[in-house]
Structures are given as structure tokens and as C-alpha cells.
């Protein structure tokens, strides 16, 4: 592996013939020699290249070898380059240049002994190559370590997401089971009771006065179950991006009136007074069935979480936009919850204490509003009620309007 690392050697001598002789001695594969005829020329090369070793003549006109070494020691980029001084003077000079990094200085004496030159240069070049290889390995290790840490972090995040998804699924399943069981139980008990009446010949229980209320009770339970199943189907479609809308001329005022009317009984049961303020008509092109779903979801929430206090629905037109707001005076929503309640299964802790719910209504609502090119916002403070506002362009933007009558799953969009 060392052979792959190129070693650059700097030769500094004022006599060209010395430089040539030295170069011939140290030549070897994987080595490149750079010749400098003066300390100044050497400095220029030092700025440009990373050297494994500098062989420096001590006696040079102008800046001498030791002065050059001083300058090298003072610069971060060059302070680690080992130096072999070449000197014609006596051996007493050997320790004249102390303080330079220990082990990184050596001496050769003129006339040069070829063996000594080759072996000293080999030692330094080997050292350089080992150091380079080691640094390379360490860089690789550090990169691998970093990558590993990133992977561990990703894994932890995935595990966290999975655990959360599993928890949400479990909560969801138990909630759905509970929500389906309640109306089913009621229906089952009613059926048993009717069977008992029949077997005892007690036909008075099925008198014309009693029958309408009986049917109404059944229908209410069935409606609850159908709504729940519809919500789950919508979520599945939304996940597959298979929920589409079919805009048609619609009067939003009339739709709002119908929704308030449909929920009147539910409002009375909750002790909530619902008021609607709307222009005589507000015409636009929307998917009527889906917008009805939006208004129903918002109004149901306002009644559920409105603490029995009055709820107002306001329908307005402003320019090319229709606006519907639903205001309650109930438990409210903390600022940190106001974004996440539009995600599936997300509910506030406070609301769980007040009413059962799957946390799907607002998720579906926002998607429907998005599909119409509109927006939904909430203003709320805990204990001070909430106002949900939906804005819909009078016409669904062309890029969003789906001309096809059917959805990819073959169902009509509004069924
Ligand atoms: N008017 C409101 N006042 C206070 N909190 C609200 C209101 N509307 C929504 N929330 C909070 O947002 C959550 C999500 O609402 P969303 O309608 O999506 O679900 P849900 O009402 O719990 O169940 P469902 O799927 O039956 O609609 C609610 O559980 C509640 O915590
Ligand atoms: Mg809801």
C-alpha cells in the first residue's frame, strides 16, 4: 500500500551539480524530487507541495539552511516536514539545530556517503508513507463511524415511528371495536326484546304509535355504524390518493341549512343551541356530498367539544371565495395541538376526557378542502372555545377538478 502513496522530496542546494548528484542517489519508484537553488526558491515550492522530506544544504548564499528551517518551523503547513541538513562543516554542527521537532532532523556530511544518504532517505520516506497510510485509515474509520452513527440514528427513528404506528393501530382497533359494538349491542338487545314481545303475543309493543320511535332508534344506531365505516373507507382511499371530488353547481347556504337541520336532534340531545347565519344563497361549484361531510364534521366537533354552549355557523362570500366558520365556546385546543389534530388519529388529551372519537374527522375534512383548492384554519385557546374556518374558491381550480365520473376504485365520488 505504501507504494501507492507518492512521496515528494525537496532538495535545496545552491550548486546545481550537487542537486543533480543528490537526485540521482535518492531516485526510486513513487518518489518525485523537486530541486530548489536557494532557500527562497524552496519556500515557494513548500507553499505549493506537500513534502515527505527536505534535504537542505546548510551553507548557501543569502538565507542559509538553518534560517530556512527556522521559517519552516514557524509555519503550520511545513513544521512537520522532516529535514536532513547537508553540511561540509565539522560534526560539531550536528546539534546546532535543536528544538526542531525531535526525530525530524538528521545530518549528512560532505563528501556524501551514498549508502548513508540512501538509508537515511529511506527511513524518512517510509515513515512518511506509514503516517500517510495511517491517516488515511483513520479518515476511513472516522467516516465509517459517522455513517454508522447516522444509521443507528435512522434505525432508532424508524423504530420509534414503528412503535408509534403500532400503538396507533392498536388504539384505533380498540376504538373502532368499541364504537361499533355500542350500536350493535343496542340493536341486538332491541331485537331480543322484540322477539320476547312476539313470543308472548304482546303486539301492543308494535302499535302504530310506538313503531316510528322504534324505527328511528334503529336508524340512529345504523347511521352511526355507517358513518364510522365510511370514515374508515375514506381514510383508506385518501392513503391511496383515490379520493376524488366531482364539483357541481351547489348552493352553500342551502347546504349549511340542511346540515344544521340534520344535526338538530343531536344538538338538542347535547343541549347545544346551533345558530346559522348565511346569505340567501351562495353559489359555487363544489362536490356537494363532500362539502356536506366537511360541515357535518366541523359542527359535530363543535357540539362534541363545545361543552353544551351555543355554536355558531357563519357562511359568507368574499370576492371569489366562500367562507364557512364554525365557532364554539368549549374546551378549546392548545397552540401546540392545533397542527396535529388535522392528522389521522390525533386527538388532544383533554378531548379524550369529554367524548369518544377516532380522530379521523378533521383529517378527512382537510383533505376534502385541499382537493377543492381551499384551506382550513383553526383559532383557539384552551377553555375559550375554537373557531374553525374553511375557505373555498367558488370554482375548483382546473388542475384539481377531476372530470371523470368515477374514482380509480370504480366508485362514484359522492357515494
Ligand atoms: N371544536 C373543537 N374543540 C376542541 N377540540 C377539538 C375541536 N374539534 C376537534 N378537536 C380536537 O381535534 C381532535 C381531532 O378531531 P377529529 O374530528 O379529527 O376527530 P374526533 O372528533 O376525535 O373523531 P371523529 O373521527 O369521530 O371525528 C379531536 O379529538 C379533538 O381533540
Ligand atoms: Mg370529529
Structure write-up:
The protein has 415 residues and is an alpha/beta fold. It folds into three domains: 7-112, Response regulator (Rossmann fold), CATH 3.40.50; 171-239, Helix Hairpins (Orthogonal Bundle), CATH 1.10.287; 248-393, Heat Shock Protein 90, CATH 3.30.565. The chain contains ten helices and twelve strands. The strands form three sheets. A five-stranded parallel beta sheet has the order 2-1-3-4-5, sandwiched between helices. Helix 1 links the parallel strand 1 (7-12) and strand 2 (31-36). The protein is rod-shaped and about 135 Å long. The two termini are 72 Å apart. Magnesium ion is lined by residues 297, 300-301, 357, 361. Adenosine-5'-triphosphate binds next to helix 8 and helix 10.
Amino acid at each position: 500500500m505504501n507504494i501507492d502513496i507518492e512521496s515528494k522530496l525537496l532538495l535545496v542546494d545552491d550548486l546545481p551539480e550537487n542537486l543533480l548528484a543528490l537526485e540521482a542517489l535518492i531516485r526510486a519508484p513513487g518518489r518525485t524530487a523537486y530541486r530548489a537553488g536557494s532557500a527562497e526558491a524552496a519556500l515557494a515550492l513548500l507553499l505549493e507541495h506537500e513534502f515527505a522530506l527536505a534535504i537542505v544544504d546548510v551553507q548557501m548564499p543569502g538565507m542559509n539552511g538553518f534560517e530556512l528551517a527556522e521559517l519552516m518551523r514557524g509555519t503550520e503547513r511545513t513544521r512537520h516536514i522532516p529535514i536532513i541538513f547537508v553540511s561540509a562543516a565539522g560534526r560539531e554542527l550536528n546539534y546546532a539545530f535543536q528544538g526542531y521537532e525531535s526525530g525530524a532532523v538528521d545530518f549528512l556530511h560532505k563528501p556524501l556517503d551514498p549508502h548513508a544518504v540512501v538509508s537515511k532517505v529511506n527511513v524518512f520516506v517510509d515513515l512518511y508513507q506509514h503516517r500517510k497510510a495511517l491517516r488515511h485509515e483513520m479518515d476511513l474509520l472516522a467516516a465509517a463511524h459517522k455513517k454508522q452513527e447516522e444509521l443507528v440514528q435512522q434505525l432508532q427513528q424508524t423504530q420509534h415511528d414503528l412503535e408509534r404506528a403500532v400503538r396507533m393501530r392498536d388504539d384505533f382497533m380498540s376504538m373502532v371495536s368499541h364504537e361499533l359494538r355500542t350500536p350493535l349491542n343496542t340493536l341486538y338487545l332491541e331485537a331480543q326484546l322484540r322477539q320476547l314481545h312476539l313470543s308472548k303475543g304482546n303486539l301492543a309493543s308494535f302499535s302504530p304509535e310506538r313503531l316510528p320511535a322504534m324505527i328511528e332508534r334503529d336508524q340512529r344506531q345504523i347511521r352511526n355504524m355507517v358513518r364510522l365505516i365510511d370514515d374508515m373507507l375514506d381514510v383508506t382511499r385518501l392513503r391511496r390518493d383515490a379520493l376524488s371530488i366531482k364539483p357541481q353547481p351547489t348552493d352553500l347556504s342551502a347546504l349549511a341549512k340542511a346540515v344544521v337541520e340534520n344535526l338538530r336532534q343531536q344538538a338538542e340531545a347535547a343541549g347545544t343551541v346551533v345558530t346559522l347565519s348565511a346569505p340567501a344563497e351562495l353559489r359555487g361549484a363544489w362536490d356537494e356530498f363532500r362539502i356536506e361531510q366537511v360541515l357535518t364534521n366541523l359542527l359535530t366537533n363543535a357540539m362534541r367539544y363545545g361543552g353544551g354552549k351555543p355554536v355558531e355557523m357563519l357562511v359568507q362570500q368574499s370576492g371569489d371565495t366562500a367562507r364557512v366558520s364554525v365557532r364554539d365556546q368549549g374546551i378549546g385546543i392548545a397552540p401546540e395541538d392545533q397542527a396535529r389534530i388535522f392528522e389521522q388519529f390525533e386527538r388532544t388529551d383533554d378531548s379524550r376526557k369529554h367524548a369518544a372519537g377516532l380522530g379521523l374527522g378533521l383529517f378527512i375534512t382537510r383533505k376534502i378542502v385541499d382537493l377543492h383548492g381551499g384551506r382550513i384554519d383553526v383559532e383557539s385557546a384552551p377553555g375559550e372555545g375554537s373557531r374553525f374556518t374553511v375557505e373555498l374558491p367558488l370554482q375548483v381550480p382546473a388542475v384539481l377538478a377531476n372530470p371523470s365520473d368515477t374514482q380509480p376504485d370504480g366508485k362514484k365520488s359522492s357515494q
